[in-house]
Each structure stands twice: as structure tokens, then as C-alpha cells.
Amino acid sequence: LFICIDHVGLAVPDLDEAVKFHAEAFGWRELHREVNEEQGVAEAMLGTGEQGEENAKIQLLAPLREDSAIGKFLAKNGPGIQQLAYRVADLDHVSAVLRERGLRLLYPEAKRGTGGSRINFVHPKDARGVLLELVELPKEPAAH
Ligand code: V0V
Q: How confident is the model over 40-62, as a mean pLDDT?
């Protein structure tokens, strides 16, 4: 059903500071950065190589607003792992299969994710305490 782990998402209070920390401490490189108003996040994708030829990446997620998903996560838990993202080839198909298996997806239809990807999430209560993102990469990667 899944292709691979696309990324692990970390909630961070300060995006610039976090990018610098992960680069200096662990050698991660910034591949892409964007603001997603709908999700209430400023995010940076970090990897070890060129985008498209990556193993799993890490995604740093900083809140634009206190009442966003990341704002609430930080208030409750502090910084740390907020999500695990599985890459899929066909999000609509995978969503239908998971719904048939009784798992709740957060959105009735896919939303826009990083770099023009299509995303949805399995509710953490239905994935044994893990917020599971499903991500279908765009056919043509967005310019960055
Ligand atoms: C909440 N819970 C979590 C969790 N967030 N468990 C594991 N991981 C998380 N991240 C637990 C929480 O402890 C509660 O358990 C229960 O779920 C319900 O939590 P809540 O406090 O009522 O829920 P909220 O209001 O904080 O909302 C949680 C959800 C929200 C998951 C519904 O965070 C959401 O809509 N997330 C999806 C969007 C998102 O995360 N966007 C930011 C990334 P107890 O206490 O009842 O046991 S955007 C992104 O990834 C992009 C753009 C991309 O990748 O391209």
C-alpha cells in the first residue's frame, strides 16, 4: 500500500533556528521551504541529497498561529515528533482502502501539501497514537 517513509515531521517553535540546529548538529541540508496558510505552518524539508533522490526526509514545522495544529501540539507536548508520513502512489485509492478498513481520515478530500503534493492524515487515535500523513508527490516537482 505504501511506497516508503517520505518524511518525519518535527514541531519546532522557530524555523530558522531549527534548520540551523539540524544542519550543524546532524548535517541535514535544506531542500525546500514554504508557507502553507491553510495548514498554519511555515515548513522546511531537510534531506541528505537532491530532492527526488532522497531516502526519508525530515520536515520542520513551525506554527503561523497558536490555534493551528502545530501551535496546539507545541503547547501540549513541546517540540518533538508530530507526524510520520508515508508516501503513496495514489492517495485517493489508498484513502478508500483505509476507510474500508475502518480508519478515519481527517479530510474528506485530499489537501495541498509541501511542494504541490496531495496529502491526507489518518487520525492518531486510529493509528495507535501516531499522526500518520499520506503523501502523493506531484508528477512534476514544484520549482524551489
Ligand atoms: C493530537 N494527538 C496526537 C497528535 N495530535 N497524537 C499523536 N500525534 C499527534 N500529532 C492526540 C491527542 O493527544 C489526543 O489524545 C487526541 O489525539 C485528540 O487530540 P486533540 O487535542 O483533540 O486534537 P487537536 O485539536 O490537537 O487536533 C489533532 C489533529 C490535528 C490530529 C486532528 O493536529 C490535525 O488536524 N492535524 C492534521 C494537520 C496537521 O498536522 N498539519 C500540520 C502539518 P488524548 O489526549 O485524547 O488521548 S502540515 C504538513 O504536514 C504539510 C503541509 C505537509 O507535510 O506537506
A: 88
Quote the pLDDT of residue 72: 98
Contact 87, 135 (CB under 8 A): yes
Q: Quick one: DSSP state of residue 116?
A: G
Say if ligand 1 is within 6 A of residue 114 CB.
yes
Cβ of 137: how many Cβ atoms within 10 Å? 21
- ipTM score assigned to the predicted complex: 0.97
Q: Specify the pLDDT at position 142.
A: 58
What pLDDT sits at residue 143? 55
> Which residue's CA is the nearest one to ligand 1's atom 49?
113
Domain boundaries, the chain: 4-136
Which fold does the domain 4-136 belong to in CATH? 2,3-Dihydroxybiphenyl 1,2-Dioxygenase; domain 1 (3.10.180)
On the CB side of 88, CA atoms within 13 Å amount to 22
- Evaluate if residue 100 carries a pLDDT over 90: yes
Q: Output DSSP code: residue 14.
A: -
Ligand 1, atom 51: closest residue by C-alpha: 113
